Amino acid sequence: MNQVYDVMIIGGGPAGLYSSFYAGLRDLSVALFEAQPELGGKLSFYPEKMVWDIGALPPTKGKQVRAQLVEQGLTFAPDVFLDTKITTMVKQDTNFLLTDQHGKTYLGKTVLFAIGGGIISPQKLPCFIQKQIGAYIHYEFPDQHAIFNKTLVVSGGGDGAVDYALEAKDYGANVIVCYRGEALKAHEAQIKKLMQANITVFTNVVIESIDPHFQEPLMLNLRHTKTKAVQYVPCDHVLVQHGYDREADLLDTLDFQFTRQDDFYLLCEEPTKTNIPGIFAAGDIHSCVGKVNLLAGAFQDAAQAVNQIKLYLEPESTKQAMVSSHNQKFHEKNQEMLKESWAVSE
To answer: Which of 35, 62, 179, 224 could form a disulfide with 85 if both were Cys (CB 3.0 to 4.6 A apart)?
Structure first.
């Protein structure tokens, strides 16, 4: 542990990624921590959904927004730590000392919480999945080309399951929905659309096992929860929508008396500045008067938090970075992009 970072960002979703970018723009050294194996936050869970609410960006699939955010977040070469869950944080002189789940420590001058609603993980199927069929079991919406003219079984009965079933149908999949309950729990209007789309629905069934099949990749063993009867369903893909496990107790375990809202959010009287000097917040975890709960709002939080951090570290610095259109940092990058575009056009 040699480096002392200007800012340690906990959370690699949209707010954390844009914070990383903007911190680099402001000449701050960055450590970016993400508990999942990849950056992107909740965008990773709806890769095929269209995102409409980012200014000047046309409707774009979640996976493309995520890829572009990751690329932007890495512009100034932050130190990125994936599969890294921060478990403790203590004050050490004027700095903060973080420790991860493996006992590794990191030192920084400030901390920026961009943890959203916590560490989110999809609930997995309880049955054993053989390695050779793992690629056909999905916990996020699969690539639309992979399911075209294929049989997709959606396991679940909530809003996510029904929405994805309808979306898969639009992409040309033969869709089957199976649900352990008596009746689907999704919004009534969406269930009506499901019925009108002639999507097969099996209720009171659970997936007891999944095996390879000699024709289709998979054979599902569905067991009726009441009669215990077994039904075999061949298919090409399974999309599991059983909800998410949320681990959101990090702030509760820390020895800091944060001002909170609803016993969860970090309430900031001045946007992005918590009541603990040197600790800041951005994105869903951040609450303040006038909070905008959109992706665009997360970007605003990120820039504002970084500007606050810059002033905290260097009180004589300017309040914000120069806009990108006139910022010298982008001069060389712009020249490189122009050369590439000229090369393509020649």
So the answer is: 35
- Provide the whole-model pTM: 0.86
- Give the number of other Cβ atoms within 10 Å of residue 259's Cβ: 13
Q: 4-120+245-339 is classed in which CATH architecture?
A: 3-Layer(bba) Sandwich (3.50)
Q: What is d(CA 320, CA 29) in angstroms, rounded to the nearest whole number?
A: 16
Q: Which fold has domain 124-242?
A: FAD/NAD(P)-binding domain (3.50.50)
> 201 vs 7, 80, 182, 307, CA distance in Å?
50, 44, 11, 52
Is 120 known as a binding-site position? yes
Q: 255: annotated binding-site residue?
A: no
Mind listing the pLDDT tens digit for each residue in 23-74?
A: 999 999 999 999 999 999 989 888 888 899 899 999 999 999 999 999 999 9
- Is 133 annotated as contributing to ligand binding? no
* Residue 325, annotated as binding a ligand: yes
Give the integer Cα–Cα distance in Å for 206 and 170.
25
**Alpha-carbon distance values, 279 to 12, 21, 211, 256 (Å):** 17, 18, 50, 10
